[in-house]
Structure formats: C-alpha cells, structure tokens
Amino acid sequence: MGQAEQTSKAKKSAKGKSILYLWTNLSLTRQGTVILAIPLTCLLITMAAWIGTRKNEDFTYRQIVHTQKVLRTSDQLLNALINAETGIRGYGLTEDQKFLVSYREALPEIEPTLQALSQQVQENPEQSQQITELKLLIQQELDILAKTLKQIENDFRFAPQAPRLGALVEQGKARMDAVRQSLQDFKDAEQEILVRRRTRLNQARFVNDALLGVSGVISLLGIAAALSLYRQTEKQMLRRGDELAATNRILATANLTLADRNKELDQFTYVVSHDLKAPLRAIANLSEWIEEDLDEKLDEENRYQMNLLRKRVHRMEALINGLLQFSRVGRRQSTIETVRVGDLLADIIDSLAPPAEFKIEIVGPMPTLKTDTLQLQQVFSNLLSNAIKHHHQSEGHIRISEQKQLDFYEFMVSDDGPGIAEDYHDKIFKIFQVLDSRDATENTGIGLSIVKKIIESKGGSIQIESEVNHGTTFKFTWPQEE
Q1: 413 CB-side CA count, 13 A
Q2: Could you give the C-alpha distances from 20 to 14, 26, 184, in angstroms and in order?
Q3: Which of 28, 205, 219, 441 could bond 436 through an S-S bridge, CB–CB 3.0 to 4.6 Å?
Q4: Are 382 and 350 within 8 A, CB to CB?
Q5: pLDDT attached to residue 66
C-alpha cells in the first residue's frame, strides 16, 4: 500500500514539473495570450450565464406581478359578492330601497370579474378547476339572493322566522360561507405560488449580482496577470505580495462591514426588545386595571374578551422573544465548557415541572460533552416542553436516550403522544408553523425552528419519526467536542 502511494505521488510530481517546464519555455507573447484567453473565456461564459439569469429574473418578476393581479381580482370578486349579500339583507331588515343599490351595482361586476379571474389562471390546471367549482357556488348564491329578494318584495317584510324566507336565508348563508372558503383556498394557493416565485426572484437576483462580481474580478485579474508578464522576473514575488496585500485589505474591509452589520442587528434587537415589548406590557396592565375598575359592571363575555386580549398580548410578547432568540442563533459568541448531559437534563426537567402523571425516563448514563451549555439546553428544553404541552392525555411517558457516532452523539427524545402526520414532518421545522389552533394551545411556532437552526449551526442534523396515534421521536446529532 505504501509503495503504491509513493508511486502515485511520484507520477503527480513528474506531471507537475512537465507542465511547469512547458510553461516556462513559452514565449512572453504566448504566455500573455494564454493568460488573457483564460479570463476572457471565463468572462464570456459568465456574461452569457448572466444574460440567461437576467431573463429568468425578468420572467419571474412578471410572474409575481401576475400572481399579485390574481389576488387583487379574487379580492374584488369577494367584495362584490359581499356587497350583493349585504344589500339584500339590509333591504330585508329595513325595507329601504337604498340597500338594493349595492346589490344591483355588484351584480354586473361579478360575472366579468369571475371571467377575468378564470382567464388569469387558465395556465394553472388546479386553480382553473377550483374556479370552475367556484363559478357553480357563486351561481347558486346569486340564485338564492334573487329568490330572497323576490320573497321580500312579496311580503314587504323580512322575517327569518317565516319558514320559507328563513330557509332561503339559511341557504344563502351556507352558500356564501362555501364561496368564502373556496375563495380563501384559492387565495392560499396563489399565496404559496407567490412565495415560491419571490424566492426564485431573490435567488435569480443573487446569482446576477454574484455573476457580475465574478465577471469584474476575472477581468481585473486577467489584466493584472497580462501586465505582470512584461515585468522583470525578480519583481514577481513583489507582485504576488501586492496581490496578497490587496486580498487582505478586501478581507479586512469585509470583516469591518460584517462587524457593522452585526452592530446594526444588535441595535435592531434592542429596539425590538425594548420599544415593542414595553407597549405590550402596558396594554396587558391597562386591561387588568380596566377590569379592576369595572369589576361589578363587566359581564362574563367582557371578562372573557379581556382575558383573550391579555392572552394575545402575551402571545405577541412570546413571538418577539422567539424571533430574538432565532436571530441570535449563530451570532452569539459560544462559551465552550464541560457539560454533563445527565445533570443538564435533570435541571431542565426540574425547571419544566411536568405534571406528576408524566414519567420522563433517561435511559442509561448520558455522555459528557465540551460544548455550549446554553444552546444544548435550548434544544432539550424545546423538545421536552413540546412533548409535555402537546400530549393528548393527562398521563404520558417521555424517553431520552443516546447513541455514539464517530465525532457525534445522536440523542433521541421519544413520547407516546398523539403523533404527527407525515405531511407535517418537514413543515413543523419552519418558522411560525403550528399544528393546533393558537387559541387552543399557546404556541408561537418558533421553538422547533430555533432547535433546527442551533443544531445545524453545530454541524448536526435533526429528523422526526412519527405516525398519528403512535407517538413521536425526535433524533438529533450533536458534536462530542467543539
């Protein structure tokens, strides 16, 4: 094996010397031609690629404008339908003819707006199918509105308790709800398309900027290299020193720029933490004072609304804290220390104070790592907190184990909770993604995003294994030593 490696190295060395010999024996003119041809060829290729990406950027931008137009048209259609429905109901309640103005003005708008929307999405089969279904729903809603108007005009009064009219009103409401839901589904799909297209646009712009930068650098290097060939051989080392100094200056400038950006981000973090959270606390306090001052005058509904207001304020504060934590991942100077994972887990479990019915099992002795304690604590705290908070029963079992892998440890956090459908395995790591209603469970949707970002900043990875009604297991890798 040793002889084979030596033979391979000898061949590479001989090949390198042969190339150097051929290069040094070329005339200055030919050397100059080669040096100029290489950057010029790269420049031409880069410019061709830039032109292609520029066209792609323009096309993507037109697609974004088109998607925004589709969203505006769908909003216009919904507004026309709402105006028509509102006009009929207002007329039925008051017998005032002026309410029929909005109904009669909305009717001529609906058909052309729907037709325009259909034409705008005709190249999207899924959206076109949804528009076809929407047309049927809208036609049914218009028929019900017309029947309702006729019934009102016959009775000269609007009486939902009347069997025939009440049925029409209920049918109209149900059909309008269906129209709204269909339009919302349509808009959600368009919003997803818009997000994807904006992502492509940003990528295209980034590629454009990068290609322009590469083109400039290649051109400058080509000119500098061509001129340097006509200098004396003894000046070559000086030239290389100058190039190295220039590179160092660029790196120094880049470091200064990066430091300035970090200072700006820190200032922004301070503003968010202070100038946004302080008014939120004031709102929560003010709601409590109002409730205390009006103690006997507030009914149960108003008390519920006050509590809901404070819950929303606390949720917003939690969102701000989560965003601040997310923005700090990877920017904070890590403090490396010896961490006994078993002791760390015991402290975390104690701080979470799980219900007595919950059993948290730590399998086997946990390893000792040289790592950032705070970030490892954030990862375990989020995973354990989620397992407790989202469990569907009063009793639960959480199991923590580990397995050594080369330079990493793989940790596993398993629970016997409700499980997560496979469709959501990737989505749960995206920021603001929650599975339950935010009013049902106080959750910001940032925790798992922070977990993933921390783990990946350490060179590790995280994955989920779960089925509905069969619990969930999170597996993540963490370096043994940083």
Answers
A1: 19
A2: 10, 10, 68
A3: 441
A4: no
A5: 79
Instruction: Sketch the domain layout of the chain as residue ranges.
Output: 54-208, 234-328, 336-479
Q: What is the DSSP string of 308-339?
A: HHHHHHHHHHHHHHHHHHHHHTTTSPP-EEEE
Compute the CA torsion angle 287, 292, 295, 298 (nearest 10 deg). Answer: 0
Closest CA to 144 of 90, 81, 94, 75: 81
Q: Look at residue 162 and tell me whether its pLDDT is greater than 50.
A: no
Here the tokens at position 177 are 């709800």
pLDDT at 158 over 50: no
CA-to-CA distance for 136 and 179, rounded, in angstroms? Answer: 9
Please indicate, yes or no, whether the overall pTM of this predicted structure exceeds 0.70: no
Secondary structure of residue 76 in the 3-state scheme: helix
- Estimate to the nearest angstrom the gap between the alpha carbon of 46 and the chain centroid: 31
DSSP class per residue in 135-188: HHHHHHHHHHHHHHHHHHHHHTS--TTSHHHHHHHHHHHHHHHHHHHHHHHHHH
Q: Is 251 helix (H, G, I), strand (E, B) or coil?
A: helix
Residues 6+ apart with CB under 8 A from 92: 148, 152, 158
Dihedral sign for Cα atoms in the order 309, 311, 313, 315: negative
Q: Which CATH superfamily is domain 336-479 in?
A: Histidine kinase-like ATPase, C-terminal domain (3.30.565.10)
CB 280 within 8 A of CB 321: no
Residue 479 β-bridge partners: 408
Q: Pairing between strand 396-405 and 358-362?
A: parallel
DSSP 247: H
- List of residues 6+ apart from 116 with CB closer than 8 A: 73
Closest CA to 379 of 480, 322, 453: 453
Q: Which two tokens stand for residue 263?
A: 């200072």
CATH architecture of 54-208: Up-down Bundle (1.20)
pLDDT in tens, 247-277: 888 888 887 887 777 676 666 666 666 666 6
CA angle 459, 463, 466 (to 5 degrees): 170
Asked if residues 363 and 398 have their Cβ atoms less than 8 Å apart, the reply is: no
415: phi then psi, degrees, rounded to nearest 5: -140, 165
Q: H/E element holding 82?
A: helix 28-94
Q: For the beta carbon of residue 390, count every other beta carbon within 10 angstroms.
A: 18
Confirm if 448 and 429 have CB atoms less than 8 A apart.
yes
